[in-house]
Amino acid sequence: xxxxxxEGLYWLGRYVERTSHLCRLLREQMETLVDRPVRxxxxxxxxxYGALRRRPPGPAIGFGGSDDDFTLADSFALADDLTFERxxxxxxxxxxxxxxxxxxQMRQCITGEMWASLNLPWLRLRELRIEDVWKTAPEGFxxxxxxxxxxxxxxxxxxxxxxxxxxxxxxxxxxxxLQLAVSLLLAHVDEVTAAEDGSDHDWMSLLRVxxxxxxxxxxxxxGIRADRVFELLVVDARLPRSLYDAADAAGRELTAxxxxxxxxxxxxxxxxxxxxxxxxxxxxxxxxxDERCERLRQIETRCRAFHAAVMAxxxxxxxxxxxx
Length: 324
Prior knowledge:
This protein starts with a helix and ends in a 10-residue tail after the last helix. It is mostly helical. It has helices at about 5-35, 40-50, 75-85, 90-105, 110-125, 130-135, 140-160, 165-195, 200-210, 215-220, 225-235, 245-255, 265-280, 290-315.
């Protein structure tokens, strides 16, 4: 398989997953704007920017308790920065554009149905501005984009041949999901720790973002406990968006790939290390949050190394290197 095709499909999977993730975050945040306290609105914005490791435009977002403090975080400007800002590489517009461009360049590697299901939503999105979606219910816009991306992935599942092209796209999705989930968990714990008056709603909103609230209530009931939320989102193999599911899927798809021209052993070793680290056991005791966050940072570092190892094996290898 050509290296440029492998790289294009890999990044197509990553950009689609990134766009979908950000849409879920913003949809939850837009729903919070309707009738939630100012503290929860600020909490949501800080969590999003913390997960993206991006500084918000304008003044810092505080945890004020009065309506006057809302001027510290203009939700209109923040939503614009995260949705339509062309200079922000992590905005919805930028990620969708990058994913669509990768699909355009990979037309020979994807099905016609895949291209149509990604290109048509892009044609609707590309000329929009924040003013267009802010007039009515902005959460509906993010829900629609999420549905379009879910439709695209459904078309991928139904129409794409299960060869190495499929596997590179899936590895990209899994790597992106791992990194995004770890970043979100770390940002969430940071904000929960900073907000001394934290509530169960903070953890419930995290479950909603991860499409895991129904699974949580089915398994544990309606009482929200932080340790149970963590267990579900990280370790539970039955949850489609858990860290374990993404790590295990990345390892399976990598194993099924044909050996690359570059060294492939490091990527396989890292995939196994990530899966074992996610599976646990996880720290318990007095400083459980600090120790768990440290483990998450180690997983995040290994995910970056895994990405580099996959690229070295299949894309950025030396032309004259000996065969593996």
